[in-house]
Structure formats: C-alpha cells, structure tokens
Amino acid sequence: MDKFRVSKDMLMEKGILRGEDIVEVRAADSHLLKRVHDEAYLQKIYSGRLDRKEQLRLGLPVSTRLFERSSTEVEATRQACYAALEEGIAICLAGGTHHAFRDHGEGYCVFNDVAIAIRDLQLRRPGIRIMVVDTDAHQGNGTASLLADDPRVFTYSIHVGKNYPSRKEVSSMDVETVRYVEGGMYLKQLFTTLAAALDVFSPDLVIWIAGADNHRNDRFGQMMLSVKDLQRRDEVILSAFLRNRIPVSVLYGGGYNRTSENTAKIHRNTVATAKRLAEIYLR
After folding, report:
1. 178-189 per-position pLDDT tens digit
2. 264 vs 260: CA distance, rounded Å
C-alpha cells in the first residue's frame, strides 16, 4: 500500500507533477457503487462484516477505513475518465481494481472502479464507446465479468495464462502469454494484438490499467520485463492513442516488487511518460 504515497512523493520531488496538477477527491456517492455492486456486499464492506474466508479471498483485512479508501479510489478513477475526455489524458494515482465482482472482492480489489466509471459515463453520455486496455500481469476477471455482452465496451487483457486468477473470465480479447515471458516476446505480442483490437473497435475513450507487476522482480507477476521494456510499453501504447486524439485515462493497476520502492518507480515512470507525450501530442 505504500506505493501510492511513495510514487506521489517521487512525482512531486522530481518536478514531474506540481501541487496544482493534482486534484484531491472525496469518496464516491453510494448510488454510483450500487449501479455495479450488490447492496448486501456494500453493506458488508461498510460495516466490516466480512468473514475470515471472504477476507482471505479479498487479501485485505476489513476495517472502518477500507470502505472510504476504496470508494475514494472509485471516485478518482471516475473523475480521471471525465478529465481525459476534456483534456485528452488524465491519470488516477491509484485505480485499476479489476478483480472485484458484483458480489465480492478478491485479489486486493474491493470495488471495480473501471466498471463503476463506465456505467456512469454511459448514463451521462449515451452511445460512448469505451475500450479497457489491461496490461496488468493478471487477467481483469472482474472487469470482464461485469462488462460482458455490452457492445459499447471492448475489454482487452494481456496476462500470464497460467497465473492468478486460476479461473479466467471471457474478455472481448484475451491474450495469454507464457509464464516468465521475456520483454521482446511480450512487447511483440502486445503491440500486434492491440492493433488487431483497434481494427475491430473504435473507442471514444480508453481506460488503460498499466500495471507494474510485469517487472522481472515482481513477486506475483511471473513476467520478465525490464524497466526499459516497461517504458517501451508505455511509450507505444500512449503514443498510439494520443497521436490519434483518442482520450486516455491511465490507472496504476497492480505491483508487488520484491524491492518495494521499485513498484513506485515503475508507476512514476508511467506518469512521467504520459506527461511527456501529452506535451508532444496535445499541444
């Protein structure tokens, strides 16, 4: 959890972001959460009444702060989507909780911020076409489940095939890599398949869950990408959308590096790349 504070501090210390660049948000209104999640589940999180099995599945202990923290993350993602539509790009300095389902959370994900933001966007902007690009090392199973069979949404996930979650859902396009995939092979697979996805779906907005768990020193990602590979990933993905004036909302996704500071650095690098490319393409 320290990665959120540490990455923000790094961004400020390096001058990548200034105080006026960051918008603080409050917790999301409950009606937004209810559009996606069962009320009984919301009440369990709010009151801290998850049993031991449910807490183990979630991977987090329940507390009075869990509901507030998770719903604030939802609101940050939602506002980042609207900001991206206005500005061309926006970043949530957290987000990407793609393992949360309608009636339960898992894999450190309490509420599905992406699905909640999309349902709000669809209500306010009927007909909007949204692509979710998920390059976290693990499949966005909750997102795929919650957004299934919606022709206005395209869910793309590239992830290790034989890794968590053991049971995969069906995205619009699932790209499975081998375990411990090397950077060159991964990047070729990513760029080829993402291009194919864009051939069949033209989005008005892209929500990109970047992920820092692709790094070779990550505890859970089971990929072998270097820092340079990740920077190449970020540059190509962001350039593809920004140069074509497709708005992008960037979310952190997961990251569990054995050297905890490295997770924050990878997120920081993604934000720095986004800012640099925005200055080139969105002048």
Report:
1. 999 999 999 999
2. 7
Which domains are assigned to the chain? 2-281 (3.40.800.20)
Amino acid at 26: R
Q: Which of 160, 169, 60 is nearest to 109 (CA)?
A: 60
* Distance, CA of 99 to CA of 189 (rounded, Å): 23
Interval 222-251 mean pLDDT:
97
Q: What angle do CA 72, 77, 81 make, to 5 degrees?
A: 145
pLDDT at 103: 97
Residue 15 CA to residue 5 CA, distance in Å, equals 16
The structure's pTM equals 0.97
93: exposed, middle or buried (Cβ count in 10 Å: 0-12, 13-18, 19+)? buried
In tens, the pLDDT along 201-221 reads 999 999 999 999 999 999 999
Give the C-alpha separation, 137 to 140, whole Å: 9
